[in-house]
Amino acid sequence: MVLVISFYTIILLISMIQLRKEYNLDTDLAYEEYLHENFTKPVSIIVPAYNEEAGIIPSVRSLLTINYPEFEVIVVNDGSKDHTLNKMISEYEMKEIKKALRVQVETSPIRAIYQSELLPHLYLIDKENGGKADALNAGLNFSSFPYFCSLDGDSILERDAFTKVMKPIIDSNEEVIASGGSIRIANGCDIQSGRILKVGLANSPLVIMQTIEYLRAFLMGRIGLSKHNLLLIISGAFGVFSKYWVLEAGGYKRDTVGEDMELVVRLHRILKEKGLKKKIVYVPDPVCWTEVPEDIKYLRRQRSRWHRGLFESLWNHRKMIFNTKYGSIGFISFPYFWIVEFFGPIVELSGYIYMILAIFLGGVYLEFAIIIFLLSCLYGSVFSMASVLLEEWSLRKYPKVSDIWKLFLYSLTETLWYRPLTVFWRFEGIIQIIRGDVSWGEMKRKGVSK
After folding, report:
1. Stated pTM of the model
2. Residues 262-283: pLDDT tens digits?
3. Are the C-beta atoms of 149 and 162 separated by less than 8 Å?
């Protein structure tokens, strides 16, 4: 507990300093010059879509209105069983085209390629189902530009998000090969025609706790790790990559449920083995809004799947841990993700079970046990509250004071109910690993945009 609290405290301090530096900048002036083609790099936006009829149209609409000089949008219909394909064809007047593909990574067969008659830079690839990684690889084969963005089919981007997420890549003279942006929760927001009109907070306790969780993960965890090039994950919901290096790594791995983390770990591994000082960074300000599960059944599936994906990424590259060849990635990032993130649920669940048994069987130093329990509640809540305060202190995405208070108060209850639930779901993921379960699990979306 002392080690975990110490690590998180250091990460929090680094995040506070970094966010404050960003906050003090004149952001409008800092990004103005990047709106000219001479200073930017063109980007291919790849949107894998499987049964995304509820959100694909507003998501694409938001992409078409981004404030960026040169880009193309490639929607990859991964064998959807709903009306995703027909909706895209109808909404954007898409016609089938004949175009030769340079197959640089293998994918499931392509059925057809479409181009919008209204917007020539909007494309639609219809292919047989092969999973999200396979769909991203298909988009990668088709893409024209040196950088690409992976974006979920239900995501809504703020207009200047690309300008901001591309800035470290442009400024670094290709030293930065990947850049990830912040993910925020769209449930409870007023979204129309692919644009965020009003940021709000959902009423569902599950969604509120996920909001706090996302704030902690992005504003604390990823800023701190990114500062020292220790980042092992860029969210599949919003990240920009160098096409050259992703192809050099072999594209997205198709036999994993955590393709986003696995790719980032593989990129780190390749760069270290080649002795190159490239960076993978996280930028806190660019915001992508995405829908999260409101039903406990789907949230449970998601968290179990995430834990399986974490294991696959760590296990496939296990030679990196405590290996001097991989520097701080092998000595800091890998031990942290193995001990705290992967084995954490086993330790916590064992603690819950032991305490329950010990109460009935005797042998508990009750006063000391209560103190330790309150300490664990306190430190978890403190870090959650700190994330909410960081949000209000720097980015200020939630305009209503009542929303901030609600987040603040809910963060006090996290250890009492939400944390044990996520621990159990992550432990379920470990059981699924032992059983050899490789299923993705259905994720039903209701759509958050009008």
Report:
1. 0.90
2. 999 999 999 999 999 999 999 8
3. yes
